[in-house]
Design goal:
- The protein is mainly alpha-helical.
- The radius of gyration is 20 Å and the shape is globular.
- The chain has helices at residues 3-24, 33-37, 43-74, 86-100, 108-133, 140-164, 167-178, 186-213, 217-222, 227-249, 255-266, 272-297, 301-322.
- It is built from 13 helices and no strands.
Length: 323
Amino acid sequence: MSDKFKVLCLFLVIAVIVMAVINLNTGFLSLQLTDFLGKSTDSQIAEIRVNRVLVMLLAGISIPTSGFLMQEYFQNPLAGPDILGITSVASLCVAFYIFFSHNILLPEFLQNSFLSLAAIAGSLLLMLSLLSLSKKFQDKSYLIIFGFLVSAFAGAIVSLLQFYAENQSLKNYILWSFGANNMVSRNQIYVLSALITGGLIICFTTIKPLIGNSLGTSYAQSLGVNMNRLKIYIIAASSLLSASVTAFLGPILFIGIIVPHFCRLIYNPSRLWQQWVLNMFLGMLMMLLFSVIAEKTQIPLNVISSVFGIPVILVMLLKQNKV
């Protein structure tokens, strides 16, 4: 482990802690330390802010990790967590739930839970479909084409549902798609943590094979890397990580593409273990920063990530074109 990597990690850890503290102190009310530690009139607001920080940390870990896996497996710096269509299918399932459940009377906390459950169920269904089809898709590009077709089909169905939807249902879906980091409860954070932990465990098993994969398929196989097993693990890990965040926060765009790109710029791209760690630290820092901006400006989280991410991706495309 090089000194440069240690310095980078130390800097990012300090920056994450500072940004988390800023996040806890960002809002309409000024809170005291006792509001976070004990029971007071503003303890409920303090709990909401703590939940906001926790969910941003979890999103900052999972989304860049999912993008990192996709980019390393497909050897494409523009590959993101939604390349397999997982995010699109989660959005489709949420749309079905919002547009067809308005006549069902449920408590608000159950509505949020069922909404998240619908997104997770749809994403896991697509993940199982991808796993069953992965044996037939020997070429990696077929997976990308399949994901593109799924995303296009899901987008078409969502557009159709929006066309015939009632005003309130349409408004609820649009608000979900913007990304709501203040609506996640502590129990939902526990569920989100369990799903992300499962995805990270699978990710841990893929890093070493991905090092061989980066040297070429033939070379990886000569080292004993089981490419079919690697493909299954990559699909499972990326699906769990991206679907869980989409279910609870809505689609957070471009973070899974730009964070791995920045990490490759600041440290050796061939060091995948270190790259994974940097992706998680930088992802947490970026999500906390976006959360502060969202609270200060009242602009939806997804809009902020898009405004930041689109120019970065455009620069990446222009840079690749020059090469």
